[in-house]
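Holo prediction. Input below; ligand is alpha-D-galactopyranose.
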Amino acid sequence: MGTEVVTDELAARHREAFTQRYGSAAGGSGAVRCFYAPGRVNLMGAHLDYNGGPVLPMAIDRGTFVALRARTDRTIRLATTSSDETCELDLDHPPAASSDRWSDYPVGVVVGLLERAEGRPGLDVLFGGNLPVGAGLSSSASICVATAWALDAVWELGLQPMQIVDVALRAEREFVGVQCGIMDPYAVGLARPGHLLWLDCRDTSWSHLPLEPGTSVAVADTGVRRELARGEFNLRVAQCGEAFEQLRVHAPEATCLREVPLDVLEAEGHALDPVARARARHVLEEVQRTFEARAALLAGDVASFGRRMLDAHDSLRDLFEVSVPELDRLVDTARETPGVHGARLTGAGFGGCTVNVLESAAESEFEQRLVRDFEAAFGRRPRVEFFEGDPGPRETP
Ligand code: GLA
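Structure of the complex:
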C-alpha cells in the first residue's frame, strides 16, 4: 500500500483543519461534513479519450478531501490547506469567467450546479488531501468530483453518480477551459477497489475489469512538474483534430480519429504534416494495443498486458513526444527489473509519474532499484507507491 493511505485519521485531521480555518460555528448554521474523491492512474489508452478511443484507468487511494458547512447567507468561501489563496463568491452573482487560480475547479462545479441550487445556503469549504498537483494523477478531476459529490449531498440535489461525473467534466472543460477528454472524472467517479475501469470514450460504455491476484500496481513520481503542460496538452488535442480532418476525407464513415483505419493512415498519411502523422499513428496503434491489453487481462496474461504498456511508452516518447528523460529512465529501469511486467508514463506526460504493473513479490526489489538508479542519474529520490484501487467518492466519518 502507499505510504500514506486514505484513512479516517486523515479525514479527522482535515475536519480539525476546517475548524481552525473557519472556527467552530462562526457564521455557520450546521454540522461540518467531510467528503473524499480519489485520483487515478491510466494503465492503457494514452491520449485516446479525446480521440474517441478506449482507456483503462484505475482509481488510487490518494485524493482530495472537502470539508464543508452551511452558512446562513448565500456566500461561498473556498480555502485550501495547501496555500493561503482563498476565494469568495455570491451564489446570486456568480463569476462568469475563470481567473487562473486553483479555485476555478470548484467554482466551475458551483456554477454548473447553480440552476439546481436555487434557495440553497452558502457554504464554508476547505479543500485538502494527499494527491500531488500536476503529477498526472488527475488532481483536477479529483477536486471537481469531490466538490460535486459534496454539494449534491449538502444541498440535497439527488444527483446520480453519472450526473456528478458530468458536472465535474463540464466544470473543467467549460469553466476552466481545458480541452480534456472524459476519462478522468469517469475514472474517479466510477472507481471500484481492485479493478480497472474499461471505458470506451466513443459511446461512454464502461465495465470493471479485475486485476489478477498477486499483481501490484505501482506509481513512481519523477517530481518533474511542467508549467507548460496545459498548453502542450491542448496542442496535442489540436494536432489530433487536424490529422482527423485530413484523414476523414479517405474514411467518410469515421466520426473520430479512433475510427480511421490504420491502413488509411498508411496509404494517405504522406499528405499529412509529419508531426500530425506521428500523432495519428500513436493514436491508431494505441487503440489496437489497448484492445489487446484488455484481451490479455481477461485471459489472465499479465505479462502480455505489460508488454503493451512498454510499447505504449515507446510510442508516447517517440511519436506523441510527451515524455521527459526522467520518465524514460524510470521506465527503462522497470523494464530491466525481474518480476516487472510493464511500465509507462501516466496522465498527459511532460513530467509526473510512471505506472507499473509487477508481481507483488517483486515490490521491494523494484522499489530499491528504481530509487537507486534514478538517484544516481538525477540526484534525488523518486517517490514509489503501491496501490490496490480505491472504492471511489464517499462521505468520510
Ligand atoms: C490528461 C487529460 C485526460 C487524458 C490524459 C491523456 O490527463 O486530463 O483526459 O487525455 O491526459 O491520456
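The two ends are 21 Å apart (CA to CA). That is the main takeaway for now.
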